[in-house]
From TrEMBL:
It holds the Pfam family HD_5. Gene3D superfamilies: Hypothetical protein af1432. The lineage of its organism: Bacteria, Bacillati, Bacillota, Bacilli, Bacillales. NCBIfam families: HDIG (TIGR00277). It comes from the Bacteria. Residues 113-309 form the HD-GYP domain. This is HD-GYP domain-containing protein. InterPro entries: HD/PDEase_dom, HD_GYP_dom, HDIG_dom.
Length: 361
């Protein structure tokens, strides 16, 4: 299968991976032939990329890091707890979170076990979701990225568990922010951005009173928008004043935001998002963490179209652990002519590199 930008889809293309809502229910199943009306609807819903059936790449599969069953369990746990908080009095919210703490702890342990058993590089691009409330999916994605980072940094098990809890709850303070502000397609006004910024304090206030969670979990909510140069919020702290977990979640949070489908912006591919993180090294983001993130994630997802420095064109077919800039590429075209496809391992051909990448048909 190959990864295709939705805006490049041709009528008659056959969906290779189903589209789910954030509860795991299938909205459009694999095997469905896409017509003009459905393609237009997917574009309107903000779906930037899809996996499409293709005879020449039918043995290429996207990497999946946790099971669909665990994703559904995670989404159910996040939604149930966050919605209960949203519908409650502010004085009851820490108690609600205290009740939910055992479920979140058990969930993080399951996620860690699946991630540790996963030998491939990390990617969540294979999953296409339509969001009723993006906060729930974003919370899970940030948790997965944060734990992948923690594993790359070789953090001890207890720290990984605390980091996972901090990541999955980092946006709990957003439950009082109106969706029309969170999902506004245009630029936020000063007043709207001021409202958005309240969520860091709000999350801290809820989580710091939860007796069966470590206090560092509250600080993850408090610090994930702080930046190394002091330009972040809510306190404008800088450098080592920001806890390691706050610096990790900051990177995971930004990366997921710019690689996810949003109503106001098309999702970027991973290598494009990483370039943005690199522009913020030592000013916004910790260099050690960005480097670790680079080593942990897939830069060029399986199925994506690439152009090589040799002028050849192809589709990424496999990943090389430890050499994420040098995957295996199925060469499909040379000098503008279609050829019999063959796999070229860039790890074994160091003179050749990827110079362009685009999810096109």
């Amino acid at each position: 299968m190959k990864l295709v930008g939705t805006k490049y889809l041709a009528e008659g293309a056959i969906l290779a991976k189903p589209i789910h809502n954030e509860r795991g229910n299938i909205l459009v199943n694999s095997g469905v032939k896409l017509d003009k009306q459905l393609i237009q609807r997917l574009l309107q819903l903000g779906i930037a990329y899809l996996y499409i059936e293709d005879k020449l790449t039918d043995d290429i599969f996207p990497v999946s890091v946790i099971s669909d069953k665990l994703k559904r369990e995670a989404m159910k746990t996040i939604e149930a707890s966050f919605q209960e908080i949203k519908n409650s009095k502010s004085t009851d919210r820490s108690f609600i979170m205290e009740k939910s703490a055992p479920a979140f702890k058990a969930l993080i342990e399951k996620v860690l076990e699946e991630l540790k058993g996963h030998q491939e590089l990390f990617s969540i691009m294979s999953d296409v979701f339509l969001y009723d409330n993006y906060i729930f999916s974003h919370s899970l994605n940030v948790t997965l990225y944060s734990l992948a980072l923690g594993l790359e940094l070789k953090l001890p098990r207890k720290q990984l568990e605390d980091l996972g809890l901090g990541a999955i709850l980092h946006d709990v303070g957003k439950m009082d922010i109106p969706l029309e502000i969170l999902l506004k397609p245009g630029k936020l006004t000063f007043e709207e951005f001021t409202e958005i910024k309240k969520h860091a304090n709000a999350g801290f206030d809820i989580l710091r009173k939860v007796h069966n969670m470590p206090l560092i979990v509250a600080h993850c909510a408090y610090q994930h928008h702080e930046r190394l140069n002091g330009s972040g919020y809510p306190r404008g702290i800088n450098g080592e004043e920001i806890h390691l977990f706050g610096r990790i979640i900051a990177v995971a949070d930004v990366f997921d935001a710019i690689t996810s489908n949003r109503v106001y912006r098309q999702a970027m591919l991973p290598h494009e998002a990483l370039e943005i993180l690199y522009t913020g090294i030592d000013t916004l983001f910790d260099a050690k963490i960005v480097e670790a993130f680079r080593n942990a994630i897939i830069l060029y997802p399986n199925g994506v179209s690439v152009i090589l420095s040799s002028g050849e064109k192809g589709i990424v077919s496999k990943q090389n652990k430890g050499f994420n800039e040098r995957p295996v590429v199925r060469i499909m075209e040379r000098d503008g002519e279609k050829i019999n496809p063959y796999d070229l391992d860039l790890k074994e051909n160091l003179a050749i590199m990827i110079v362009e990448c685009e999810a096109i048909g």
